[in-house]
Amino acid sequence: MTTSRRIALTAALLLGTGIHFSSFSQTPGTPPQGMHPMMGSAKMASHREARHQKHLSELKASLQLDASQESAWNIFSTEMKPPLQRPARPSLAELEKMTTPERIDKMMAFKNERDAEMNKRMTVTKTFYAALTPAQQKVFDTQTQKFMSEGPMGHHGKMHP
To answer: Residue 88 — φ and ψ, nearest 5°?
Structure first.
């Protein structure tokens, strides 16, 4: 197999599996390429935390929890703070020193860390949901569906307005 054919085949494989290396080229805390610089700033993180806290407060008020449910709420709200954190991305310099299989392994480890965090949140949510009454579960369903339909950053299911 020629070198150019091997490169084309590798590129097709990587593109076909949806792997995008540019997201790994940032240092932790910096926004991905093409994203507004404010998205990764401390000010934006503070804004996200405030919005997240507001959503939790509104949810708790809507649920009208009784004293026996406070413990379940405390576990749920603690695990939901702070908003989902991304694992530290490998540096561009680190990636450049790796072979393609090593980069794929690194990306899979990155994905597995994120998946583990999401699985933990899903389990905590299901546990909290089970502690609610059927009427509270309906409120929870409505409130969380509303939040999910707003999409990232409150943009009604879209990344950009």
So the answer is: -65, 130
Measured between alpha carbons, how far is residue 109 from residues 3, 12, 22, 103, 128 in Å?
29, 22, 16, 10, 29
Q: Amino acid identity, residue 128?
A: F
Angstrom distance (rounded) from CA 154 to CA 140:
18
Q: Which two tokens stand for residue 132?
A: 């609610």
The answer to whether the predicted template modeling score (pTM) of the entire model surpasses 0.85 is no
pLDDT in tens, 70-116: 999 999 999 887 655 666 777 888 888 999 999 999 889 888 988 98
Kindly provide the b/e burial profile for residues 117-132, where b requires at least 16 CB atoms within 10 angstroms of the residue's own CB: eeeeeeebeeebeebb
Torsion of CA 129, 133, 137, 139, to 10 degrees: -130
**128 contacts: CB under 8 Å, gap ≥ 6:** 72, 73, 75, 76
Distances (CA, A) of 74 to 32, 58, 125, 126, 143: 33, 15, 12, 14, 18
Q: Is 76 exposed, middle or buried (0-12, 13-18, 19+ CB in 10 A)?
A: buried
Give the list of residues 6+ apart from residue 25 with CB closer than 8 angstroms, or none.
33, 89, 91, 92, 95
